[in-house]
């Protein structure tokens, strides 16, 4: 490979007006964090892009990591030459020869320094002619070229770019604030976590478990999902809620067809308390409209009534197949289909109420010590931080 640099462009961040600088600094920090595994790479922030000098690091390896960083629109490998026209010509030829698979090309040159004596269109013609003369396998196609060679002439140097690679897009993690996501072991909620993080939210997850009815392997499944999700942000905080007593109390006091509704109302109360403690401004779930009994509008109304926090449901309008496809892309699918029991599946009715009514739900809750059950669950939360692939109790770090 001839490329000494990777140039990272931000895309949507550039819409953020006065906040742009903050966004770019956050992205720069995220990139630095991710590239710690490539100690020789040097990162420099410019107004429009981040420039990574590879030194001896492999461009393909660094690219693979950058492709997962939220806030990056695209990445181009690049070489740098002086602003002398002969040097630029030679540089363009090196790029054309490197990208051997292409049959057609186009030059897209521009002057960043308007004092540079040769205009963009003249540069295009000159450099295009140079390529045609030296590379007999290449023809010009200005509409749909296999290879677009971009050239940017700056004050002291010119950059020549190879094939652009598309980034994951979105916004840098944390720039939208913190969200408490209800993470089950299923297919949907990890995808909801990914999509919410992609819009710049810092995700913390809360998981309800009911030992001994749910096993250690079910807990391990959620930890493994969290490890995958960590790859998209920094460290990942997971709150494990002891939910057995609440579920047993619900089973003993609530008619079968309302158990899911009441159970979910308790989950939301516990999640809200945890969110407020941790500075999260919203809850998020993997619900999708009409997917199961607890995901009808009537059900969502009855369940939502226990909290004033906004509840983000990024999958609300998505079909299961589309959700599963994203789960496969982000490598959570294989973990999610492991067959261990979730707390929701124990004590559950064969025929849950699909249109639960709020006043009925409130009446059934009078027979439960709701506040005590919620407080007991919140106090019993075990919090772990997942960082660099390991899990550790993080109580001290969180205080
Ligand atoms: P998923 O695939 O995410 O488990 P689902 O289709 O199985 O979703 P439900 O079981 O009704 O649907 O759960 C809906 C949402 O409620 C989940 O997406 C998740 O956000 C939350 N949830 C369900 N069970 C748990 C749990 N044990 N701990 C935390 N959140 C849960
Ligand atoms: Mg589920």
Summarize the structure.
The protein has 2 domains: 5-166, VC0802-like (2-Layer Sandwich), CATH 3.30.2130; 178-398, HUPs (Rossmann fold). 38% of the residues lie in helices and 21% in strands.
Notes on the structure:
The protein folds into two domains: 162 residues, VC0802-like; 221 residues, HUPs (Rossmann fold). The chain has 14 helices and 16 strands. The chain starts with a strand and ends with a helix. Strands 1, 2, 3, 4, 5, 6, 7, 8 and 9 form a nine-stranded mixed sheet that branches. Strands 14-13-10-11-12-15-16 form a seven-stranded mixed sheet, with helices on both faces. It is of the alpha/beta class. The mean pLDDT is 92. The longest helix is centred in the C-terminal third of the chain and has 20 residues. Bound molecules: adenosine-5'-triphosphate and magnesium ion. Adenosine-5'-triphosphate binds next to helix 5 and strand 11. Belongs to the ThiI family.
